[in-house]
Write a structure and sequence with these properties.
The complex is a heterotrimer.
Chain A (H helix, E strand, L loop, with lengths): L4 H19 L20 E6 L8 E7 L9 E7 L12 H4 L1 H5 L9 E3 L7 E2 L2 H19 L1 E3 L5 E4 L3 E5 L5 H13 L5 E3 L4
Parallel strand pairs in A: 8-9
Antiparallel strand pairs in A: 1-2, 2-3, 4-5, 6-7
Chain B lengths: L7 E4 L16 E6 L8 H10 L24 E11 L2 E10 L7 H5 L6 E4 L4 E3 L9 H5 L6 E2 L6 E2 L5 H5 L5 H5 L5 E5 H17 L6 E3 L9 E5 L19 H16 L3 H13 L12
Chain C lengths: L12 E5 L3 H4 L1 H14 L2 E6 L4 H4 L3 E4 L5 H14 L5 H7 L12 E2 L2 E2 L2 E2 L4 E2 L26 H9 L4 H8 L3 H12 L8 E5 L1 H4 L4 H14 L10 E3 L6 H6 L6 E2 L3 E2 L8 H8 L15 H13 L23 H9 L5 E5 L3 H4 L3 H8 L4 E6 L26 E6 L8 E4 L4 E5 L12 H19 L5 H5 L12 H9 L1 E2 L3 E3 L2 E7 L17 E2 L9 E2 L2 E2 L20 E2 L27 E4 L4 E4 L86 E6 L13 H6 L4 E5 H7 L6 E5 L4 E9 L5 E3 L2 E3 L1 E5 L34 E7 L1
Parallel strand pairs in C: 1-2, 1-8, 2-3, 8-9, 12-13, 13-14, 26-32, 27-29
Antiparallel strand pairs in C: 4-5, 6-7, 10-11, 15-16, 16-23, 17-20, 18-19, 21-22, 24-25, 26-33, 27-32, 28-29, 28-33, 30-31
Helix pairs in contact in C: 4-7, 4-8, 4-10, 14-16
């Protein structure tokens, strides 16, 4: 049995302060034992898929409220879907922390614009954004569209504006993106599969 | 029958006996198979997320360990060790550290605050912070150096084995999330049985000393490890070979308590507050560079 | 993946090489641990670093980054010399007996037809000998020296265990042990699976690395069987789907390809792609190309796509060259790109050579970013101190940052690596004014269309005629779009064998691509997804996880492309007579009683073609068999050859020490101005490799508190020997420099990064995780791609992130 002087002091200090607090009237209440209330009891459960890697783990998203009109859903917890044949309820450290992605302070909330040479963002409306972007695109397309190449072959391409498509957007978004890009004649069009 | 039970086996600093007429609850256990662990820290995140804890964003100290130690916000951490038990054969032993839920819990024995620490009949040892006086005595009582006093509220915190989930029939958050099945949860009997299968497999793969870590010095634990090298638990970031409750706990029970009751003074108070704010278990750097 | 995540549990041996599944795909990796637990499977990891996968492996061997072809070529040589191959399989299901053109040759690292100036090959000699009947000549006796088997054996005879060790730095005994373990799976009832990822794709010769591995699997008879396969672990949640949908510069949906300038004639375009069988009795499924193409054009252009205008063929842009991301940044750098739209993509962090990318973005007139998070790209113009030291006043780019929803705030489907399309449901509204991606696309497109309608402009036809039959035009619904790519009948579709039998009524959703027609009677946006939303409903949303055969196929869980098939090439799991090679893991088998192939999976075959008809399992190839000899499909040669990475610690290729042309990939594209950006080993002596950590996902999770907590700060890894030489201790700050830039990070000194003996020379490796940047909650750091070279794989142009050279110093 080895107790150093320092440890002994600490033992006494702790013992004394604990007891003395009780003596001073900070006595804890009766020793009841109850676990923390189960936080998911009547939350709403929504099935979803993890947006990170391609294992495609099933997840359960828990939100406050029952989706009634006056209670917009607020996501409070996410865990693995036990029915999913691949992940069977498990999640990796990224999937297990998906709540903090949804609730990240870096989530963008408004369209923003940065003018040439400016040092700051400026908040704009969606309509302003769409109108200006559409104009820039059309101007560039009209100016640089190549209907025929030097040999006179029909090529109908627009390569002075490009697009990088997402890696985690849905098939539905991807399909729509592809349709639009090709209708404009875009070729400078790629996605994250390349890198 | 559900695995959980809210029946109480023992409460700290409480002399009234716990209710005892109900039949034996099933003892639960978490089994951590280190040979399957990839150190992904999903358990750390699931623990934080479920328990609404967020530690500080720290720094990298030249290792994968982060957060670097258990805190009031980090109830479990992965401890990484690079060892060569056999020359030329590198092993990356990664141990999930956290409360072992001892059958004979030193923290509970040491705790002077009535009902701050409770042991349920299913084996879970839980802290009830509303009763905690922040004395830190549980830390002295713990043979595994687990509880941490919060700087925010001066109370002790540690893994609850997700007592709130277990109480409604679910598995702990870390168990559920573990991608490789390195963490399992069930009755202690089943977990021991499962471990036996794992140990046989490990022996076939050349780990002659594979074994179960369920140390008898603390009456066995409700968190157990499957170790590839059960003969050398120290390889796993100093997992104690034969843990016992600190002798200081009996010292407290026998000597300090009556002595302290008579010695109330400002100086002692000062010591207490220093103790609470600095914490008794500052971790030194060298413990992390192994 | 040819197979799927759960199927990994059926394997006897796992080879993780060119990837780190435990780190990057932990929940999929669980099926490796299941195979170990329940089949006593073994796990081998080959990697420059002792990874998290290696931590639970049965055997680990180190390898120098970028030398995998040498290792795998050595394995091929071992299997051929020791005759550890699945004889019946290779003889019947591969091109073993096919005869190669007499003109084809290979000398000192260069194949016939090389043009050094263009850095490309004339591939006309890379082909088979064709008989008078139009079919490929074969020699089933395998005696002919021009048969693929003999040619391959000769090619890889140079890849001796000593040569492998010299190039790779892998100890010879470790290499031979792995060869022996893999060789055991040549038994017809044994399987090995290969799991790889960006550790193979991100090299200047990455596609050929993967090919070499596929050749190993074919020799062992491990393709098409349960527990086997070539399993590409895709990096992002829907990168599989977005590739399937053809969102790459040269593709159309379902792996159809855009025409080139020269392909002015529609018929020639189709004929060139609708391959005719090269051997008698073979299916050659691409013969149906025209049906897929016309159905896509009908989906896109509706009534405006007619037989008269060749289904609007001329409306498709024609390629004069590839416009991959590297080419586009090259063009941007040259000032020929004015606008750029980044949808959920952060190229400033994700593309190679940050200094070039950053400078290129500054030359744009406008940049649009669409993302749920504040990306580095959206702030490329902003000064972020040492991490992004630019002067905003000198950058004239107009930048738009549009907030989009994330997964939790939308309905839709994603395709996992298993090729499974899974539907997900919206749980909450997005924050602030954020909009869904489809609404943002509609917002921009409909404005453009309005302008063209009003003012006219350059070639407006495809814009004005693009189908847009959405009940809410400004908010196209995921259901509408999913139904559109799954396909429907515009007119009644009947059985070609019996015109009175109606397969699908006009207006109904089709059941599968077998119902597509090239006469304009069907519309289908992506033929390989056909049937995912049929009249039975949304099959992607199915949630029955029952597994009646116990081998994890779960056919009623969601929907796998193609045709809900879970294991590709599964006909090859049976012998030529139709009996499964391993009845315990039966995928399919010939059931003579009903005259059909039946089993735990949808047959990847003509369902009623009896074995005696002689149709072979690889129905997408016109040969009907798998190819060891790639004919003209690869940029740098029909047989993979080891070349050094573009930047390497070796001054020459040990296989061709005297031929400088064959040092690095002779067909890799290098832009003129980039040659000077490559470093030399005298100044940059260490191999550098970049990678992911399990705690983070790309550049997203530095915005996520939990991930920032468990891995907060940028670091680099190095072995103890290098650290000692450089006086570096764990926790020190170090500067890692390449010829293109530098980063400063914390040093993690570890036993897990071995020093290699490469032909008598000590080679050290420096490992650099990619996840940090100047935005987010984790500690800010340098963009790792400040270091990487601007060169890609010769076939895919995927950048060489996995092997280049650096120097390192203590700060």
């Amino acid at each position: 049995m080895q107790v150093t002087r320092r440890q002994f002091f600490k033992i006494c200090a702790a013992g004394v302060s604990g007891s003395s607090l009780a003596v001073l009237g900070f006595s804890p209440t009766d020793a009841l034992a109850e676990v923390r209330t189960f936080k998911l009891a009547r939350t709403t459960e929504t099935r979803n898929t993890c947006p990170y890697c391609s294992v495609g783990c099933g997840i359960l998203i828990y939100s406050l409220g029952d989706k009634s009109k006056n209670a917009p859903a607020e996501i409070i917890h996410i865990e693995g879907d036990p029915d999913h044949p691949v992940n069977r309820g498990t999640l990796c450290p990224k999937g297990a922390g998906l709540l903090d992605f949804v609730q990240s302070p870096s989530r963008l909330k408004h369209p923003e614009y940065r003018a040439p040479g400016a040092k700051e963002w400026k908040r704009i409306s969606w309509d302003e954004a769409f109108t200006r972007i559409a104009k820039l695109m059309k101007d560039d397309r009209d100016k640089n569209f190549i209907a025929k190449n030097d040999k006179g072959d029909t090529v109908n391409r627009w390569v002075s504006t490009g697009m990088l498509a997402a890696s985690a957007s849905s098939n539905e978004t991807g399909y729509l993106t592809h349709k639009i890009a090709r209708s404009l004649g875009m070729l400078a069009f790629d996605n994250q599969a390349r890198v | 029958m559900a695995l959980q039970s809210l029946d109480i086996k023992a409460r700290s600093a409480t002399t009234t006996p716990s209710p005892a007429v109900r039949g034996e609850a099933i003892k639960v256990a978490k089994l951590i198979d280190i040979s399957k662990c990839i150190g992904c820290k999903a358990c750390q995140v699931a623990c934080m997320e479920w328990n609404d804890l967020r530690d500080e964003v720290g720094t990298n100290a030249g290792t994968y360990d982060n957060p670097r130690d258990l805190t009031d916000q980090s109830w479990t951490v992965m401890r990484f060790a690079e060892v060569e038990v056999q020359a030329g054969k590198l092993e990356w032993l990664i141990r999930k550290d956290g409360c072992m839920h001892c059958a004979d819990p030193g923290c509970l024995k040491a705790c002077p605050a009535p009902g701050a620490i409770v042991q349920y009949t299913n084996g879970i040892v839980d802290f009830h912070e509303e009763n905690c006086i922040g004395c830190g005595y549980c830390i002295t009582g713990c043979p595994f150096n687990i509880p941490r006093i919060s700087k925010k509220d001066g109370k002790a915190y540690k893994c609850t084995l997700c007592s709130d989930r277990v109480a409604v029939g679910m598995e702990p958050a870390c168990v559920k999330t573990c991608p490789t099945g390195a963490i399992l949860f069930g009755s202690k009997d089943d977990m021991i049985h499962h471990a036996e299968g794992r140990i046989t497999d490990l022996k076939e793969r050349g780990y002659q000393n594979a074994g179960l870590y369920d140390p008898s010095g603390v009456g066995g634990t409700h968190v157990m490890y499957v170790l590839q090298h059960a003969d050398q638990p120290g390889l796993y970031n100093n997992l104690p070979k034969d843990p016992h409750i600190s002798p200081m706990v009996s010292l407290w029970k026998g000597v300090t308590k009556p002595l302290a009751s008579f010695a109330l003074g400002l100086a002692v108070f000062a010591g207490f507050f220093h103790y609470v704010t600095s914490g008794p278990n500052e971790v030194k750097d060298e413990e992390h560079t192994s | 993946m040819t197979n799927h995540w759960v199927d990994i549990k059926n394997t006897d041996l796992v080879l993780i090489m060119g990837g780190n599944a435990a780190e990057a795909h932990p929940c999929g990796f669980k099926w490796v641990t299941e195979a170990k637990a329940h089949r006593k499977a073994k796990l081998i990891v080959v990697d420059p670093r002792f990874t998290r996968s290696a931590a639970v492996a049965d055997f680990y061997a180190p390898i120098r980054a970028g030398t995998d072809i040498a290792f795998l070529g050595g394995l091929i040589n071992y299997l051929l010399i020791n005759d550890k191959i699945q004889h019946e399989y290779v003889k019947n299901y591969t091109d073993f007996s096919f005869l190669v053109k007499e003109e084809y040759g290979f000398e000192d690292g260069i194949f016939t037809g090389y043009n050094a100036e263009k850095r490309s090959y004339d591939k006309s000699t890379w082909g088979y000998q064709i008989g008078k009947d139009g079919f490929v000549l074969t020699d089933p006796s395998l005696e002919n020296p021009r048969c693929v088997y003999r040619m391959m054996k000769a090619h890889y005879s140079r890849y001796t265990p000593d040569m492998v060790s010299t190039i790779c730095g892998t100890p010879k005994d470790a290499f031979l042990k792995i060869c022996a373990m893999a060789a055991e799976t040549s038994a017809p009832n044994k399987a090995m699976t290969i799991m790889y990822a960006l550790g193979w794709t991100q090299h200047s010769q990455g596609t050929q690395m993967i090919r070499t591995a596929a050749m190993v699997q074919l020799l062992l008879g491990n393709i098409g069987v349960a527990g086997g396969g070539m399993n590409a672990l895709r990096g992002h949640s829907n990168i599989q789907g977005l590739t399937d949908l053809g969102l790459l510069s040269n593709l159309l949906p379902g792996y159809m390809t855009l025409p080139s300038d020269a392909e002015q004639d529609y018929k020639t375009y189709i004929e060139k792609r609708a391959f005719k069988p090269m051997r008698p009795g073979q299916m050659s499924y691409w013969q149906n190309y025209g049906k897929f193409f016309v159905s896509t054009m009908k989906a896109w252009y509706g009534d405006a796509a007619t037989a008269e205008n060749n289904w609007a063929y001329d409306w498709l842009p024609k390629l004069d060259k590839g416009y991959d991301i590297l080419q586009v940044f090259e063009n941007m750098n040259n000032g020929s790109v004015n606008g750029y739209i980044c949808q959920g993509f952060n190229p400033l962090a994700a593309a190679p050579c940050k200094v070039k990318v950053s400078g290129s973005l500054a030359k744009l007139k406008f940049l649009v970013t669409i993302d749920p998070l504040a990306t580095e790209t959206s702030e490329f113009w902003q000064n972020h101190g040492e991490y992004n030291d630019v002067d905003p006043t000198k950058i004239a780019t107009e930048v738009f940052r549009l907030p989009s929803t994330c997964f939790a705030e939308e309905d839709g489907s994603l395709v996992s690596s298993s090729r499974v399309l899974q539907w997900h449901w919206k749980a909450a509204e997005p924050p602030g004014d954020a909009l869904g991606d489809q609404e943002i696309l509609a917002g921009i497109f409909l404005k453009v269309r309005e302008l063209y309608k009003k003012d006219g402009g350059a070639f407006p036809d495809p814009i004005l005629n693009l189908t847009w039959k959405h009940r809410q035009p400004y908010s196209p619904s995921p259901e509408e779009l999913a139904k559109e790519f799954s396909g429907r009948a515009l007119k009644e579709v009947t059985d070609p064998k019996d015109a009175t039998k109606v397969l699908v009524k006009a207006g109904e959703q089709i059941n599968g691509f077998g119902e597509l027609r090239d006469d304009g009677s069907t519309a289908c946006g992506c033929w390989i997804f056909a049937g995912c939303w049929s009249e039975k409903g949304n099959l992607m949303a199915r949630r029955d996880n029952s597994d009646p055969y116990g081998i994890g196929q779960t056919l009623n869980w969601a929907f796998a492309w193609p045709a809900n098939r879970r294991i590709l090439y599964n006909r090859a799991s049976c012998d030529p007579s139709g009996k499964p090679y391993d009845p315990k893991r039966k995928v399919i088998g010939w059931d003579a009683g009903v005259g059909k192939w039946t089993g735990s999976d949808i047959p990847d075959f003509k369902a009623d073609s009896a074995p005696e008809e002689g149709m072979n399992p690889f129905i997408m190839n016109p040969e009907g068999v798998a190819r060891f000899f790639a004919i003209d499909k690869m940029a740098e040669g029909p047989f993979p050859e080891h070349y050094e990475p573009m930047e390497s610690p070796l001054l020459n290729n040990p296989l061709h020490p005297k031929n400088d042309q064959a040092r690095a990939n002779p067909a890799a594209r290098v832009f003129k101005g980039d040659w000077v950006t490559f470093g030399k080993p005298d100044k940059f002596p260490y191999v550098c490799t970049t990678y992911r950590l399990t705690e983070h996902f790309h550049f997203w999770t530095k915005h996520v508190k939990t991930s920032a907590i468990i891995q907060p700060e940028q670091f680099v890894e190095m072995g103890e020997e290098l650290a000692k030489e450089k006086g570096i201790k764990s926790g020190d700050h170090v500067r890692v420099k390449s010829n293109r830039g530098f980063i400063v990070a914390v040093a993690v000194v570890t036993k897990r990064v071995p020093t290699l003996n490469v032909g008598g020379k000590k080679v050290h490796t420096v490992g650099v995780p990619i996840h940090w940047g100047f935005m987010g909650l984790a500690k800010n750091g340098y963009i790792t791609n400040s270091l990487t070279p601007f060169v890609g794989d010769a076939n895919t142009q995927t950048p060489e992130f996995k092997a280049f050279i650096v120097n390192i110093e203590k700060v």
